[in-house]
Amino acid sequence: MANQVKIRDRGGYVYTIPGNNVSETAIDISSYTKVKHPNLFIDMRSAYSYTQFLALFRIAISLQPIIRTNFDTPDGKISLQAKNVYWDKKSHMVEIVLPLRDFGVRPEHYNELERALLDMSRISVTFPQRSALTNAELSATGGLCHVAIERKNKRRQNAHFFFHEQIVHTIINPQNGFSQILKETVEKASSIYTAKLYFNICRWADKGQWTVPYLELRSILNVDPTKYNSYHDFRKRILKSSADALMHKTNYWFTFYERFPQRSKIPDIIYFIIHNGQLSDQERRDYKNRVSRIKDTGSHLGITARSMNSILEKITPQNSRYVYRKHNELLAYIADNEGEITNHAAYYRQAMQNIVLGELLKPAEIQAEFDFSNPSIL
């Protein structure tokens, strides 16, 4: 990630603005496998390991035929039928079988893999439960599943996950929501923090942004209280590392900025700006055309390329329509007030800077009171 700009608001808070050039071409992800991932798994706050995280993801993949069928069922009734999924209606249990080889662990490390999988019974989940005594719909909390390991021979080494049917109903119920995840992105993730951030970015992709308190973010990522106590380390090893790992390489990636209370080195809020890597050819052409026209305007006014780049690099495919509309309104205003504006170039540059920074800071609480007149480079 490039240098960041520091902006203050009237209340004394300091905001860091990403200086990334998000206009570079994204990789081709057309062949990637799309997974409808249950938001229930994304929203869980249990401190599970990376192996357990992969197990949950592969369970979601196993449930894809069921999830897709339910999306297409007009009456909303949920069915449970898949190749490696068995629903025992008498015991009210659903069994999902996954080969150990699917976890990408060498056989000599299967003992460690088994321990991680068996420990998944400790993961708690909340699901609806009807009381037979009161006929009331209750909210029950219990273990996610039971796990058994089968290693009779080298050809048959499987993990069996046994879920109560009500938990599976909750997992695959469309009313609880799904996020589109790319299987290949998860498999390439170098850390559980990158994977969890990616999942949450996909969770909020339709909003284009995700705002979360710093301490809550640590909880969401299940960062051990003894690790990354310095925000500098947290930012470098988790936020920046994950942003760099995902940028232009998947369906959704992010840039971020922070809000720092006065005289504090620890932010109270993190703002994630979500970028879409699935633009149509027309959307890409429109975006490049808008940026090109703004760039040409700056050049015509005699503004240096370096000064304009600090503005252009903050124009994204998502905000380009808004920025270009404000750009046209700005040119019309300058033309109507030509006699009163003595330096057109300086006025245009400052106004365009206000426009792009204001758009990036839109999720912030006190946007109307930002001071854009004197930004500094971090």
UniProtKB/TrEMBL annotation:
SUPFAM superfamilies: Winged helix' DNA-binding domain. It comes from the Bacteria. It holds the Pfam family Rep3_C. This is Protein involved in initiation of plasmid replication.
